[in-house]
Task: inverse folding
């Protein structure tokens, strides 16, 4: 499924300069709605009504295309507005392969049409909806009046493409439809795989080989999840924001909890209870479920990143790093060991904590690499600018040597004059009297000038511009040198942060060994659980849901691995040879 917005929308109004009938005669502006409506209905010249599969109207009380277009035109003129193109035309098209297998039917198309208008907030506007069958792909045309029939305000087309793209993706997932040539769908699948911690469990060693061997094999085959790869970008966010209704629901659930929070642990717990993760992005703080995101201040205006850090007396990065290191050390108490559900919950959270450590390490490595790249580019830039400055300086010195008998003395006197008068006044003084900084080449005779003097005067005409170019190049070099020094400092800071993080991990800096330990512990903990234990556990509903989901996936994968091993034995295949 995909969308198309007509590049040339039907023009509803025309400026006075475009009147076709001359001054004082008004153009028939109703053609914008009328002609488009007749085209969609199949009544335009060169078309037939056979192309129409079905049609519907919204807020028009008529199905006649001419009457509907007249009502829409009258509505667009009823109240004063500055909208030049009130007629809005777009198309939703379906994949022919979906149609061939019977996934597309009129009832479903009508449901999607309603949802499209609702998503675009056009459900209260006048609209003609036609489904056409004249192409191999079924498609729906929408002709909408952007002017609201009651308020007279024009609908804003801002981000229309992004909204329709997100809508097509959501509908395709809801109805199991294809999205032809949609790169975003592949990215979403990769993101889902990246966020699935259970993927690591799937590679648990059951045949006695080391987990590094599994990770190396996955990386060689291109199947290693991004969150286990060093090249992971910890700052990547979903492209879609939460809708207004979702933000309002979040405010009802979490706003009071955020106001009562006494620390970052409370903030994380409040958002985790709503199924969201707190993450730093740029200069602010966002919450995300992996598919959409919103700034935390949108939930409560008093809970911005700076406001929370000031209230808690601790910055977010320090808390997150301490939390990650705490997760690495593990939680081993008798109460946890004696409670199977709690042990599984702790093992699951510890594995997620390891992911936080990976993100912290990879974030620090990413910052170092980024700063090194910036420094290398600025060093090259500084080198090129130095060469540029040197060329202009040599050009200026060449002009001095062609103009003055002693170019070195002329340069010294020019610099001295700059210091006394300033470069602008010094330039004017030298322009009025070139020999103030030294005698020029050649001599003036009674009957004329020697060739050397004429050449010197020609060179002097361009001497000022040569000097200005050199001075500008020198100033530019100094500015780039200051930027270069700043990037040296930023790289040094990034390296210090990375080293401080590695030192804080202590004995646990071997991340692969740590990962193996956490996967084994989670695997063993889930092996001892039953669905009944989870249902009867004394914990939050969200955690019960997460554990139940993890257990179901765990059991499904165990059965799948068992079937695969049986099949391998029957075929005499060792999967890791």
Result:
């Amino acid at each position: 499924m995909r969308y198309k917005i007509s590049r040339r929308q039907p023009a509803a109004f025309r400026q006075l300069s475009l009147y076709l009938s001359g001054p004082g005669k008004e153009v028939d502006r109703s053609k914008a709605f009328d002609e488009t409506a007749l085209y969609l209905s199949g009544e335009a010249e060169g078309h037939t009504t056979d192309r129409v599969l079905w049609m519907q109207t919204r807020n028009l009380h008529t199905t006649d295309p001419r009457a509907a277009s007249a009502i829409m035109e009258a509505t667009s003129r009823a109240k004063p507005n500055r909208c030049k193109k009130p007629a809005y035309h777009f198309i939703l098209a379906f994949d022919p392969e979906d149609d061939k297998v019977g996934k597309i039917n009129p009832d479903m198309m009508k449901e999607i049409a309603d949802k499209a208008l609702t998503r675009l907030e056009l459900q209260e506007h006048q609209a003609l909806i036609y489904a056409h069958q004249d192409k191999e792909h079924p498609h729906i045309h929408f002709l909408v009046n952007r002017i609201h029939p009651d308020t007279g305000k024009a609908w804003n087309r801002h981000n229309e493409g992004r909204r329709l793209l997100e809508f097509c993706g959501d509908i395709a997932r809801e109805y199991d439809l294809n999205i032809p040539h949609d790169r975003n769908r592949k990215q979403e699948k990769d993101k889902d795989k990246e966020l699935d911690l259970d993927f690591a469990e799937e590679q648990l060693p059951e045949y006695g080989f080391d987990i590094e061997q599994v990770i190396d094999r996955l990386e060689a085959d291109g199947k290693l999840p991004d969150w286990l790869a060093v090249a992971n970008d910890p700052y990547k966010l979903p492209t879609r924001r939460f809708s207004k209704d979702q933000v309002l629901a979040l405010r009802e659930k979490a706003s009071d909890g955020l106001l009562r929070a006494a620390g970052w642990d409370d903030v994380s717990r409040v958002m985790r209870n709503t199924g969201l993760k707190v993450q730093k992005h740029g200069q602010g703080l966002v919450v995300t479920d992996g598919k959409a995101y919103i700034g935390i201040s949108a939930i409560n205006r008093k809970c911005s990143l700076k406001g929370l850090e000031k209230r808690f007396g601790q910055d977010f990065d320090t808390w997150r790093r301490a939390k990650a290191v705490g997760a690495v050390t593990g939680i081993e108490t008798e109460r946890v060991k004696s409670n199977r559900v709690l042990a599984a919950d702790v093992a699951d959270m510890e594995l997620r904590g390891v992911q936080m450590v990976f993100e912290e390490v990879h974030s620090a490595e990413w910052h170092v690499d980024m700063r090194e790249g910036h420094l290398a580019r600025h060093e090259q830039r500084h080198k090129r600018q130095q060469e540029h400055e040197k060329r202009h300086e040599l050009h200026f010195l060449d002009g001095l040597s062609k103009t003055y008998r002693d170019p070195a003395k002329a340069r010294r006197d020019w610099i001295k004059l700059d210091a006394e008068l300033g470069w602008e006044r010094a330039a004017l003084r030298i322009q009025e009297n070139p020999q103030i900084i030294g005698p020029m080449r050649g001599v003036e005779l009674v009957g004329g000038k020697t060739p050397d003097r004429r050449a010197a005067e020609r060179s002097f005409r361009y001497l000022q511009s040569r000097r200005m170019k050199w001075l500008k190049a020198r100033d530019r070099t100094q500015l780039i040198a200051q930027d270069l020094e700043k990037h040296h400092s930023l790289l040094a800071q990034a390296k210090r942060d990375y080293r401080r993080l590695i030192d804080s991990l202590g004995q646990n800096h071997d991340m692969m060994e740590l990962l193996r330990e956490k996967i084994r512990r989670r695997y063993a903990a889930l092996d001892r659980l039953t669905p009944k234990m989870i249902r009867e556990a004394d914990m939050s509903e969200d955690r019960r849901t997460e554990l139940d989901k993890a257990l179901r996936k765990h059991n499904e994968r165990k059965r799948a691995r068992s079937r695969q091993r049986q099949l391998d034995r029957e075929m005499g295949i060792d999967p890791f040879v």
Observations:
- Residues 184-228 form one domain.
